[in-house]
């Protein structure tokens, strides 16, 4: 079990641990085993926004007057406290780099304060992306002519916002143990600077299949209800207009009139006699030859 | 229609309603053509009675047509004016032989609800009559009777460019034929 020596201020030295894990070496007196401290995060990232995160410096350093100051990576830090554990909440989805400063009583730490390695805390929005579905139905236009419009086909599209997904975490900082030294953060060559890669927004096309969602009725119920309503409307329209179909393959031929169909028509006779043209020829003689009285 | 009728329908030998004798070839062709036109204008149903109805358009008496034409002659108009001055007096006019040419354009309109413009079936009727020995009885400004005479009749009925009937008849004896004026005066009494 490592111990922090006391009263040997100038004899302290640092020993580099070849361990590949993230370590900080606490100065220890000569011939004493090196002391390694790490920062543990609970729960294990990724964590949710506004979720309480517990930071613990491990192992618990023995001795009195050991103080800790936690840097949470969001430009906030705790005071110097004697407890090796504290909590913090994040309010933005981001990858934060947290670390703790450790300081012991004067002389116990050779160079004042030492830091634990930075620990990445990935904060995400836990709520899963819910596809926004829109069912578009083609309106059916009743027409006196015999026409048929296919029933409405619901279609749904879902868009996923461009946010870091818990299922595709960003790269995390990995410390290579080969050249690790106990140096302050920001200049350690053994700490890879994480780069968050954000994928462009993706468009998904969703077919109306049952989707299990948290709370509320399943979305496939809406599809079924919409399709049922559309079918009912179509049936009502067809019943209302009662179209008569006369299948006729050859459109250029005159259609045979239906038999036994009474139509309402009127015939109006105009002899038009008064508008006639008359011409009377008498070969130059007088028309009236003689006038007699009876 | 009595046997003594001198209607154009009879003179042109158009089929009578309910006639059993087959119509002429020209009339059959006209019926066929009319049927095609009715289909072409997309009437909703056939009109089997249309052809027989057209015959009614020619239920016009030939003497009435002659009277109408005579009344347009200036000499006869003058005689009728004089007879109006003595309404009780009956006057008989002996006419010289003359030829009368008439052209008419009777038509039938078919009006169907929903069809904005009526279909018009219009005919051209050309009549030539050669009148001999005509004696007209007039009274009170009206030609009341064709007392005597004879008439040679030539007539043609056309539907567009189709000749439906073309008739030339032997002289028709006109004797004691009442005219429109007499029938009207009798109906008033």
The termini of chain B sit apart by: 23 Å
N-to-C span of chain A = 166 Å
- The percent range for strand residues of chain A is 25-35%
- Helix tally of chain A equals 1
The radius of gyration computed from the alpha-carbon positions of chain A, rounded to a whole number of angstroms, is 47 Å
SSE pattern of chain B: HHHHHEEEEEEEH
Question: What kind of sheet is the major sheet of chain B?
Answer: 7 strands, antiparallel
Helical percentage of chain B = 25-40%
**Helix and strand composition category of chain B:** alpha+beta
CATH architecture of the domain at 9-125 in chain A: Sandwich
Structural class of chain A: mainly beta
Low-confidence stretches of chain A: 1-32, 129-199, 208-212
Strand content of chain B: 35-45%
Q: Report the mean per-residue pLDDT of chain B as an integer.
A: 83
Q: Helical proportion of chain A?
A: under 10%
| CATH class membership of the domain at 9-125 in chain A | Mainly Beta
Shape call of chain B: elongated
Quaternary arrangement of the chains shown?
heterodimer
Tell me, briefly, the overall form of chain A.
Answer: rod-shaped
Quick summary of this structure?
Chain A has 294 residues and is mainly beta. Chain A contains 1 helix and 17 strands.
Structure overview:
Chain A has 294 residues and is mainly beta. Chain A has a domain at 9-125: Immunoglobulins (Immunoglobulin-like, Sandwich). Chain A has one helix and 17 strands. Chain A has one helix at residues 219-241; strands at 12-13, 25-26, 28-29, 35-36, 38-42, 47-48, 52-58, 67-71, 85-89, 94-103, 113-115, 119-124, 156-160, 202-206, 265-270, 277-281, 288-293. In chain A, strands 6, 8, 10, 11 and 12 form a five-stranded mixed sheet that branches. A three-stranded antiparallel sheet of chain A has the order 5-7-9, with no helix packed on it. In chain A, strands 1-3 form a two-stranded antiparallel sheet. Chain A is rod-shaped. The relative contact order of chain A is 0.13. Residues 1-32, 129-199 and 208-212 of chain A have low confidence and may be disordered. Chain B has helices spanning 8-11, 25-40, 50-54, 62-70, 74-85, 180-188, and strands at 90-95, 98-104, 107-112, 119-139, 142-159, 162-173, 177-178. By secondary structure, chain B is an alpha+beta fold. In chain B, a hairpin with a 2-residue loop joins strand 4 and strand 5. Chain B starts with 7 loop residues before the first helix and ends with a helix. The model of chain B has no long low-confidence stretch (mean pLDDT 83). In chain B, strands 1, 2, 3, 4, 5, 6 and 7 form a seven-stranded antiparallel sheet that branches. Chain B is elongated, with a radius of gyration of 20 Å. Chain B has a domain at 61-188. Chain A binds chain B through residues 254-255, 257-258, 261-283, 285-294, and chain B through 39-40, 42-47, 50, 53, 56-57, 60, 64-65, 68-70, 72-73, 75-76, 79, 89-113, 118, 137. Strand 16 of chain A pairs antiparallel with strand 2 (98-104) of chain B, so a sheet runs across the interface.
């Amino acid at each position: 079990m490592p111990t922090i020596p006391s009263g040997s201020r100038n004899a302290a030295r640092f020993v580099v641990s070849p361990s590949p894990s993230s370590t900080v070496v606490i100065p220890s007196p000569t011939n004493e085993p090196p002391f390694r401290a790490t920062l543990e995060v609970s729960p294990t990232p990724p964590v949710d926004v506004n979720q309480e995160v517990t930071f613990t410096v491990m192992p618990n350093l023995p001795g009195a007057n050991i103080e800790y100051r936690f840097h949470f990576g969001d430009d906030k830090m705790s005071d110097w406290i004697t407890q090796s554990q504290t909590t913090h909440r994040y309010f933005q989805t981001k990858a934060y780099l947290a670390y703790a400063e450790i300081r012991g009583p004067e002389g116990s730490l050779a160079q004042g304060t030492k830091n634990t390695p930075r620990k990445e805390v990935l904060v995400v929005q836990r709520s899963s992306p819910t596809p926004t579905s829109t069912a578009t139905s083609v309106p059916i236009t009743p027409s006196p002519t015999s026409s048929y419009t296919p029933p409405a086909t619901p279609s749904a599209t879902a868009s996923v916002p461009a946010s870091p997904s818990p299922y595709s975490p960003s790269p995390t900082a990995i410390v290579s143990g080969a050249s690790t030294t106990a140096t302050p953060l920001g200049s350690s060559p053994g700490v890879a600077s994480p780069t968050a890669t954000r994928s462009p927004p993706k468009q998904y096309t969703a077919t109306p299949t049952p989707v299990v969602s948290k709370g509320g009725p399943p979305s496939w119920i809406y599809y079924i209800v919409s399709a049922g309503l559309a079918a009912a409307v179509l049936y009502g329209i067809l019943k209302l207009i009662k179209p008569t179909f006369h299948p006729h393959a050859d459109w250029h031929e005159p259609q045979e009139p239906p038999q036994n169909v009474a139509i309402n028509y009127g015939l109006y006779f105009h002899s038009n006699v008064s508008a006639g043209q008359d011409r009377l020829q008498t070969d130059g003689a007088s028309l009236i030859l003689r006038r007699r009285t009876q | 229609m009595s046997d003594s009728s001198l209607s154009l329908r009879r003179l042109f030998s158009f089929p009578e309603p309910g006639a059993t004798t087959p119509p002429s070839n020209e009339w059959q062709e006209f019926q066929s053509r009319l049927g095609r036109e009715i289909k072409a204008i997309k009437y909703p149903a056939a009109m089997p009675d249309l052809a027989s109805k057209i015959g009614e358009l020619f239920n016009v008496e030939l003497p009435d047509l002659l009277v109408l034409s005579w009344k347009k002659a200036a000499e006869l108009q003058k005689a009728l004016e004089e007879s109006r001055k003595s309404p009780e007096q009956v006057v008989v006019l002996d006419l010289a032989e003359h030829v009368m040419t008439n052209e008419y354009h009777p038509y039938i309109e078919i009006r169907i609800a929903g069809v904005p413009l009526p279909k018009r079936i219009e005919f051209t009727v050309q009549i030539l009559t050669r009148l001999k020995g005509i004696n007209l009885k007039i009274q009170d400004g009206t030609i009341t009777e064709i007392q005597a005479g004879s008439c040679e009749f030539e007539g043609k009925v056309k539907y567009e460019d189709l000749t439906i009937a073309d008739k030339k008849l032997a002289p028709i004896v006109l004797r004691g034929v009442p005219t429109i004026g007499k029938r009207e005066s009798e109906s008033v009494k």
